[in-house]
Amino acid sequence: MPFSDVIGQEHIIKLLKNSLKCGRIAHACLFVGPDGIGKTMVAKTLAQALNCKREDEDACGSCPACRRIENFSHPDVTWVRPTGLSRQVGIDDIRRLRRQISLKPYQGRMKVYLITEADRMTAQASNALLKTLEEPPANSILILLTSHPASLLPTIISRCQMMRFSPLNLGRIEDYLVKKLNLSFPKARLLSRLSEGRLGKALSLQEKAVWEEREKILNLACQISVQDDLEKLLKVAAEIVELVSNFKQELEERLKDELREVEDVISKEQLGEMRKERIAFLAGESRRKVGEILDLMIGYYRDLLVLKEGGEAINLDRKEEMEVRAVSISSQGIRKIIKAIEETKGFIERNVNLRLALETMTMKIAEELEYARGS
Ligand SMILES: [Zn+2]
Predict the structure, then answer these.
(1) 117 and 46, same structural domain?
(2) pLDDT range class, residue 283, cuts 50, 70, 90
(3) Confidence (pLDDT) at 370
């Protein structure tokens, strides 16, 4: 996709086009921004522009080189992704990169190496990459993509040209959804508000499973109310635990299959190592899932606060029921609820018992609701 078709990120595209025009593109770029914001798309276009038949500041998007890069099948454009059960970019991946990057391009003008979740590089891998960054080979460029720049070695960051991707204007996302995907205005408006300015997120919310889970979590947030008996609160916590354990189980099945495939060809030690990695990975992913669920709940209570103050909610489809609810709670009460959920997120990051933390959280929320009613 040519730069001219990319929506948003104008300042980054302007900079890249200018560098392409002068033939002075940095040897290493670092694209920073949350998932779904367009890092991969822009990185791919840059790889295309560097190898396109057109030899201009933008890719044509249709020549053989552009098409191959689009389909991830160009021999000079290599994507390095985290692999293995702990999803890391390991030393072997970077060693391979270092061996290949110094060779001449096969078909194109430039070899392009893209590390998709650069923050998942191991310490060893990061140090090995540093050597390449210190002596960048000619006719090659490295593009590091990350949503967690703080997890990268400072020495890596300082050797890259950093570009921060910014959220899109919601109106533009809405416009895109209506014009390109033929969504109705209300649906496009809702998705654009939920997207936080990330087109990729707006598109993922269109998937049925993602949407249904959102519904379920918001329903759970609504279920916690003043008159709650303990049993009902425990049930809300239990349902969140169930969502997380279903997620974990599905992931575990997938990982087991991966393990089965390699079981016979690796040593016992390696297998033991991989099992350990798997446990750590599952725990990490489960915590991330809980974080996502709690973020949705926080979003719901933030909306209540915003509505009380006359602003516009994000969860537009729930506006009516939220307005009714907002009346019965004080702003201070809502802030305390948000704080309680944020604290719970922190506890879970620190590995406390999930069920216990969630039960405590639902009880705190109910308590705040009760207190706010009385005041
Ligand atoms: Zn082209």
Answers:
(1) yes
(2) confident
(3) 82
248 plus 370 within the same structural domain: yes
* Entry pTM: 0.76
Domain limits for position 223: 219-374
CA of 65 to the centre of ligand 1 (A): 6
CB 168 within 8 A of CB 199: yes
Give 214-248 pLDDT, tens digit per residue: 999 999 988 887 666 888 889 999 999 999 999 99
Cα–Cα distances (Å) from 73 to 46, 79, 132, 369, in that order, read 15, 10, 24, 56
Ranking 7-16, 313-322, 342-351 by mean pLDDT, the lowest is 342-351
* Distance of CA 2 from the midpoint of ligand 1 (Å): 8
In a domain, 214, yes or no: no
CA of 108 relative to ligand 1 center, distance in Å = 11
How far, in Å, from the CA of 42 to the mean position of ligand 1? 15
Taking the centre of ligand 1 as the mean of its atom positions, its distance from the CA of residue 198, in whole angstroms, is 27
236 shares a domain with 181: no
Do 120 and 227 lie in a common domain? no
Of the CA atoms within 13 Å of residue 233, those in its CB half-sphere come to: 19
- Cβ neighbours of residue 76 under 8 Å, at least 6 residues apart? 51, 105, 106, 107, 108, 110, 111, 112
Asked if 100 and 22 sit in the same domain, the reply is yes
Find the 34 Cα to ligand 1 centroid distance in Å: 28
Q: Is residue 212 part of a domain?
A: no
Rounded to the nearest angstrom, the distance between the alpha carbon of 4 and the centre of ligand 1 is 13
For residues 176 and 309, state if they share a domain. no
Residues 184, 95 within the same domain: no
Q: What is the mean pLDDT of residues 272-295?
A: 83
